[in-house]
């Protein structure tokens, strides 16, 4: 509660929380990357959520890349935590770990900026746009993407798990429109190179 705190104390508490969250996110992502290769033992609930998620994957969905750098030249670049292959469909699945305490926190109904001005401004919607960028980059490179999964490392007491898997909406059409994609030339008018 911030009622009895000075503005300096509130800022210090926010900074501490931000730094701790960033460190935790980095540590958890590193565990997730190393777990696939060497089956590390989890040391906290979020790491246990990673183990549970991998154990719950069906046999026909297999990892093909971890920490994959994706980009569209002149537009953007990013790093996807997990790229999976669905052996039944031959299509890719993008996965990304998220350690947010609150995924849907929004302040007074604020919305995102164009071209996503219909979406509330909260973590999940920003991540949906992040996933769409990863998907667009992979599709631009010639791959088919089946879906994107956000792996939220939080308690799911209903299912006795330490993760919740969320499927994100496909916003690649909106991104193509925004970046000025030309179907004939397969180029983007807003690319700076």
Any overview of this molecule?
With 193 residues, the protein is of the alpha+beta class. The protein has one domain (7-188). The chain is 36% helix and 24% strand. It contains four helices and seven strands, in the order ααβββαββαββ. The chain has a five-stranded mixed β-sheet with strand order 1-2-3-4-5. Strands 6-7 form a two-stranded antiparallel sheet. The termini are far apart. The model has no long low-confidence stretch (mean pLDDT 89). InterPro entries: PDDEXK-like_dom_sf.
Total of DSSP H or I helical runs spanning 4+ residues? 4
Helix % is 25-40%
Spatial order of strands in the largest sheet: 1-2-3-4-5
Order of helices and strands: HHEEEHEEHEE
Q: What does the largest sheet look like?
A: 5 strands, mixed
Strands, count: 7
Shape: globular
| N- to C-terminal distance | 49 Å
What is the residue-averaged pLDDT? 89
Number of domains: 1
Strand content: 15-25%
Unreliable stretches covering 5 or more consecutive residues: none
Write a compact overview of the structure shown.
The protein has 193 residues and is α+β, with helices and mostly antiparallel strands. The protein has helices spanning 7-38, 45-56, 123-140, 172-179; strands at residues 61-72, 76-86, 91-98, 145-152, 164-167, 181-182, 187-188. This is PD-(D/E)XK endonuclease-like domain-containing protein.
């Amino acid at each position: 509660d911030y009622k009895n705190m000075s503005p300096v104390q509130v800022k210090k508490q926010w900074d501490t929380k931000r730094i701790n969250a960033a460190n935790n996110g980095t540590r958890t992502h590193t565990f997730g990357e190393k777990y696939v290769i060497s089956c590390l033992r989890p040391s906290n609930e979020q790491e246990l959520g990673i183990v549970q998620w991998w154990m719950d994957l069906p046999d026909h969905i297999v990892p093909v890349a971890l920490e994959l750098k994706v980009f569209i030249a002149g537009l953007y670049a990013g790093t996807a935590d997990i790229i999976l292959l669905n052996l039944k469909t031959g299509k890719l699945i993008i996965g990304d770990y998220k350690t947010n305490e609150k995924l849907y926190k929004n302040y007074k109904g604020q919305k995102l900026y164009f071209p996503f001005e219909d979406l509330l401004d909260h973590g999940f919607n920003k991540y949906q746009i992040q996933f769409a960028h990863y998907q667009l980059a992979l599709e631009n490179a010639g791959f088919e993407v089946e879906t994107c999964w956000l792996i939220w490392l939080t308690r799911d007491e209903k299912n006795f798990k330490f993760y919740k898997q969320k499927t994100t909406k496909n916003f690649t059409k909106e991104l193509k429109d925004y970046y000025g994609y030309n179907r004939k030339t397969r180029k983007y008018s807003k690319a700076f190179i």
